[in-house]
Predict the structure of Alpha-1,4 glucan phosphorylase.
Amino acid sequence: STDVMHIGPGNSVAELKESILGHFCFDVGKSPEYATLHDWYMAVAYSVRERMMEHWVSSLERIRDKHQKIVGYLSAEFLMGPHLGNAIINLGIEQQIKEAAEQLNINLDEILQQEEEPGLGNGGLGRLAACYLDSLTTLKVPAIGYGIRYEFGIFDQMIRDGWQVEITDKWLRNGNPWEIVKPELNYGVKLGGKTQGYTDEKGGYRVKWIPEYEIRGVAYDTPVPGYKNETINLLRLWKSEATESFDFQAFDKGDYYGAVHEKVFSETISKVLYPNDVSEAGKKLRLSQQYFFVSCSLQDALRILELRGLSLDDLPDAVTFQLNDTHPSIAIAELMRLLVDEYMVDWDKAWECTRKTFAYTNHTLLPEALEKWSLPLFAHILPRHLEIIYEINSRFLSDIRNKYPGDDDRIRRMSIIDEQGSKYVRMAHLATIGSHAVNGVSALHTELLKQDVLHDFYELQPDAFFNVTNGVTPRRWIKLYNPRLASLISDRIGERWITHLETDLINLQSFADDLSFQQAWRDVKKQNKTDLAHLLKQRFGMNINPDSLFDIQVKRIHEYKRQHLNALHIIHLYNRIKQKRTDGITPRTFIFGGKAAPAYYLAKLIIKLINAIGETIDNDPEVNQFIRVVFFPDFNVKNGAHVYKAADLSEQISTAGKEASGTGNMKFSMNGALTIGTYDGANIEIMECVGEDNFFLFGLDAAEVKAIKQNGYHPYDVYNNNNDLKEVIDLIQSGAFSKGDTNIFKPLINSLLGDDPYLVLQDYQAYVDCQQRVSAAYNNEQAWTKMSILNVARMGKFSSDRSIRDYCENIWHVTPG
Ligand code: 26Y
C-alpha cells in the first residue's frame, strides 16, 4: 500500500486543473466548448473522488486489521446531502479547487448546485446517521454504514395552489459519480417459503429454511472522508437484483414472462424509500427491505471476519452493530439464524455472541412509531425468523417468570409478542432483549424511555441503559454551510474548533461584549439573510425583507411538532395589525419548510394553511409592512444550506415529551439563532448550555403534559376562555384565508377544538407571550447580538464528535484512532 501512496494525485492548483480537464476528456467525453454545467460538475466530482481513493485503499487495510473493532452502523436511512462540497472541505482543498475553477472559467458555486442530493432518508434519523459517519471517520474509528441504495429517495416537494404535491426523486438520472459498484460483493437473500426439521449427522434436531424466493444484494460503496485526516470509511448500500438461478429456471420451462416478472419483483425491494417518519402501517415490502439489507450486511460482516482470519467466537470483539432504531432489528434474529442453522453453533453460545454484538438506539416514544408486524405477515416473509423469535421469547419470559413469580401482567407487557387482540411482533422488545446496550437520544428522552416505554426492561437491567445526546457535524453545518461565520470565528479563536468544538468554541465567549466583534457578527447574519432573500426571490419570486427578524421553522410537518401553533401566533399578529394595535410588533418574516408524509392528511392541511395565510398577507399592504409568511418548498439538506445560517429565531415548539431530541435545534443555535422552545428533547440541554437568559422557554413540561392529560383536558374550554385565541380560530373558520371557504380548514379546527392531542391550545397563550418577549429582545440590537454569540460559543457539546466519543466509550468499547 505504500506504493499506492506514491501514485496519489497532487493537490496543487495546476494538478487539480489538469485532473479536471483530464476527467472532462476521458470520463465525460466531450470537448469543453460543448460543456454543460453538469458536465463540469462530473469532471470536478471525479477529480475530487480520485483524491479520496488513495486513502480508501489504506483505509481498507484498517478494515482488514484484525485487532481493530469495526463499527457497523445499520440504518434504513442515510441522508448524506450533497457530497462534493463536503469532500472538498474535508480534503482541505477548497482554496485550490476555487482557483482551479476560476482558471477554467467555471463558477464553483454553480458547479456545486448541480449535484442532486441523495435523499435516502426522511429527516432527523437519516441525517443523524450521516453526521455520525462524518464523525466516525474524523475520529478515525473504522466503520461501515450499511443501508439500502434506494433507486428513489424521499420525494421532491412542490407546492401547487398551496398544497403539497409529491414528485418522484430521480436522483440517479444523471449518474452518480460518488458510488463504486462492487459486482463481486453480492449475497443471496431468501424470502418466504417454509421451514423443515431434520436430523443432522450427530443425531441432533436442526431446522432449515426452504424459501419461496431468493434475491441478490449487490454492494455500492461511497467513500466517506474524515476531516483533513487522510482517512476514509465507507457507506455500503445494497441494491436488490434477481438471482441468475431463478430466471434460468423459468426460462427452462419456457416461461419467459414469469422470468421477467421475477426480476421485476426482485428489483422492487430497493426501489423506493418509504416516505413516512413516525407512523407506518406494517407493509410487506417494508419488512422485506429491512430484512434484505440486514441479511446482506451480516453476511458481509462474516466475510470480513473470515478475511481477518478470525473465528465466530471473535465476532463481538471484531465488530459492533449499532441498530438505528428498530428498522434493522431483524438483524438479531438473522444473526441467530446464521449462527444456529448455518454455522451449527449451540443456542446459548449464539445468544451470548448476538447480545454482545448488538446495541440499539431508540428515536421515539410515540406509540404509533413503535414498529410492530402482524404475525401472519411476518410468518409469510420470514417463517424461520418467527420461530427463532418465539424461542428467544420463551427463554426470555421463563427468566422473567423466575424473577417475578406470578406476575403475569409483567409477562404480557414484556413479551416480544403482543397478544392483546390481533398478534404482533414488537420490534422494540426484540431490539432491547437482543442488545447489550439501549440508548435514548437526549437526557429527557432517555429518562422517559426508562420511566415509561421500556420501564420493565430498565428494571430488569438498569446497567444496559445509556443516554447519548445527539450531535451534528460542525464541518457541514458550520464550516461548509456558513463560511462567513466560520471565518469570523477562526479569525478570533483559530481553526481547531472545527474538530474540537467542545473545548474550543467556548473561547468565543470573551468576545461577546466586544462591540466591533458584535458588528462583524451582525454583518455576517445580515449577509446570510440577504442571500436567502435573493434565493427566494430568484427561485419563487418571493419578497422578503432582510431587515426583518427571520423566524424559521424547518422540519418534517407533524402535529406533534406543532407548525400550527406557529401559524396561530401569526394570525394573532395579523389581528393586532388589522385592529391597529401594532405596538410592540417587530417586523418579522416567518419561514417554514418541511415535507408531510403523503398519506398524512392533517399535515398536508397545515401546509395549506401556512400558504393560505402567506398569500392573504402578501395581498394586504397594511399587514405585509409588518409581517410576511413564506413556505420554502422542498426542504432538504441542500436547501438547508441557505436556511440555518440566515435564522434569527429557531422554532422548536413540540409538545413536551414528544420530540426525542431534535437536531435542527442544534444546527440553528450553532449558527447564531436564538431558540424559542419547549422543555423537550435536546432543547433542555441546549438551554442548560447556553443559559436560560439566552433562550426563550415557554409552555408545559413533560410531567405537566402527562398530568393534564390524565386529569382530563378540555380544549374547547381553553378556546372559550381566551378571547384572543377565539378570535384567531374564528378567523380561520370564517374563511378569511380561504377566499370565504369555511370548510377547507374544518378538519384542523375540529381536531384542535375536539381533542387537541398535542395541546396546541393549552400552550397558545404562553407561546404568544413568549413571542412578545422575543420581539422586545430583538429591538435591543446589542443585547441580541450578545445572546447570539453566547449561543454559538456554548454549543460545543452538540458536535456529533462528542456523541460518537460517547458511543465509543460507553457502548462500543472502541478507542478512537
Ligand atoms: C417505522 C417507520 C415508518 C419510520 C421511519 C422513519 C419511523 C420513524 C422514522 C424516523 C424517525 C426520526 O427521524 N426520528 C427523529 O430522530 C432524530 C434523531 O435521533 C431525533 O432528533 C428526532 O427527535 C426524532 O423525531
